[in-house]
Request: fold
Amino acid sequence: MQIRCIIQLMIDSLMLLIILAVLLLVAGYFVMTYNRLQSLRNGADATLSQIKVAMKKRLDTIEQLVDSIESYAHFERQTLEKITGMRSGLQEAGAQELGRVEKESRGVLGNIRLVAESYPDLKTSQATINSMNAIRELEDEIARHRYTYNNIVQEFNTMRDTFPSRWIAASMPRLDYLSFEEDELRRAGYYTGEETEPSRPKVEWK
Reply:
């Protein structure tokens, strides 16, 4: 009788240990998954901030180019106001809004390049060359950060959409990809620059 009681006690203890182990594993998975999701969100926010800084620097450089080109061509006041508006709105902009800023800033930059092509002295100016090179470097930096950001977003959204991690991420909204549509279409060979060319500000030649 005593032996039977001892065996039953051992079984009960083993079951309790198993239950505790399962609970610990579930709790550990919950903590690890939650921390990973938070880490991804923080990483996305930090990378997006780096993109905003690079985009602001590019807008600053574009504005300097517009100022330097004023002696060759007169831009509408709306152009400078647009640059100022894009720059001031960067801080609070989300991924989708940054895509719009990218499209508009490329439109302004495209017009500047058009002006530079029309004036050999301006095109070969060291100041213009340096500014254009700085813009290219900033665009490369933006592209690198965007690649990192979108990879983070992909992992976060995948965890949010798949079981069992989606239960833990139920209260967390999806993250938006940072997509610059024209760049993607151009890389894929579908964009020629004629169908959906960004609208460019008007310019009056002097």
